[in-house]
Amino acid sequence: MSIITIERKVLEKNDEVARKAREEFAKRRMLAINIVSSPGSGKTSILERMLEYFNDAVAVGVIEGDVQTDLDAQRIAKYDVPVVQVVTNGMCHLEAKFVYDSLSAFDGKDIRLLIIENVGNLVCPSNYDLGEEFKVVVLSTTEGDDKPLKYPAMFRNASVLLINKIDLLPYVNCNVDSMIKNALTVNPKLKIFQLSCTNVQGIAEWCGWLEKQLI
Amino acid sequence: MSIITIERKVLEKNDEVARKAREEFAKRRMLAINIVSSPGSGKTSILERMLEYFNDAVAVGVIEGDVQTDLDAQRIAKYDVPVVQVVTNGMCHLEAKFVYDSLSAFDGKDIRLLIIENVGNLVCPSNYDLGEEFKVVVLSTTEGDDKPLKYPAMFRNASVLLINKIDLLPYVNCNVDSMIKNALTVNPKLKIFQLSCTNVQGIAEWCGWLEKQLI
Fold it and tell me: Touching check for A87 and chain B: CB below 8 Å?
């Protein structure tokens, strides 16, 4: 059996579990989003700002994916929302079964928005459907405006691009117009928001849009 | 055949080719280093500063690994050094065979230092020996000081840590002392340099040390 056949089988199996997770989300009227990015782009910081924005207005649940440690779940636990930590033990992406198996933690809590923070990796998670409604890719200004062209699969498979750390623009060699142009070249349908977690610029716009997507 | 068995076979096959590459490096008296990091940590910018430092004093060859595009090789080509672009077509890491198959491009050029820039990914490339003398992991201050704990395999398998973008420290939430402490917790033997590609701070120290490792 070739490696490609094995990989296809892994993805097919994952897609099957993702379908079950998607059915479960619909049954629970839960909007699930899958946040992906490089390590250090600011996924957890954005999540913190989102939890502050939604506060008691929207019931949010969180699944934290990490290669090692529960540092992110510790950060999120302060916000008094249900959070499940998935440690992948070296695996470079989340798979649908991790998400599906975590759902019982949200039983009876009437969660309306499930935020899944994937492992920090701009390549591998693009292939793995977690049953989410859509993927949200985060790219920070410090990473450079060429990244959508260099890592196209992730930008092609996402519906939303959050350009983070725009407060650092005066200090870094990044042209946001080029970044947006490169992202739209790869995926013309991307919905794009510009954010700063430091001065909360753009957070209300992004969260307001997301709130309208709730089911 | 299980997936774990397949993965082990892939790694064993890779190690075998890495051994051949390592023998070839020794025969050519070429020091090969494998630079790894997240996307956007500044691997290519560091490479540019290194090429400026070594200029005509050390014959350098470059292998550029990218998921897609030859943007990095285009940047490096300006420095008039031999460069081979490897496009992995979606694969999340370089394997030894890419490196071994590229070596003929350096025939007759008496290269003393071969710099391999891996795909931007802080997880997967840690498992793949390319035959290099050692791995150099780049972590930028904008990524946060917790990353060595969250992605330990890469820091454990590297010999050198380059902390990049230290010029941005006044603007980001990063404690370099904590970053160093976290890195040394994971790997007490790490040799650490602090760099800025913008104001070239630390470049001479890192390149001077590297020059002493030439064989």
Answer: no
| From B72, B123, B147, residue closest to A40, measured CB to CB | B147
* Residue reference for tokens 């209300």: A204
**What DSSP line would sit under B167-185, residue for residue?**
GGGGGSS--HHHHHHHHHH
Alpha helices by DSSP H, A89-215: 96-102, 147-150, 152-157, 176-186, 203-212
Domain locations along chain A: 2-212
Of B3, B90, B168, the CB nearest to A171: B168
Instruction: Quick: pLDDT tens for B195-215.
Output: 999 999 999 999 999 999 998
Among residues A39, A76, A66, A36, which one has the least CA distance to residue B142? Answer: A39
In sequence order, the β-bridge partners of residue A28 are none
Other Cβ atoms less than 10 A from the Cβ of B74: the count is: 12
B142-152: b (≥16 Cβ within 10 Å) or e: bbbbbbbbbbb
Any idea which fold B2-212 has?
A: Rossmann fold (3.40.50)
- State the ipTM, two decimals: 0.91
Find the mean pLDDT for residues A193-207: 97
Q: What angle do CA A193, A194, A200 make, to 5 degrees?
A: 115
List the single residue in A with minimal CA-CA distance to B145: A40
Whether residue B39 and residue A150 make contact (CB cut-off 8 A), yes or no, is yes
DSSP per position, B123-188: SGGGG---S-SEEEEEEEGGG-TTHHHHSHHHHHH-SEEEEE-GGGGGGSS--HHHHHHHHHHH-T
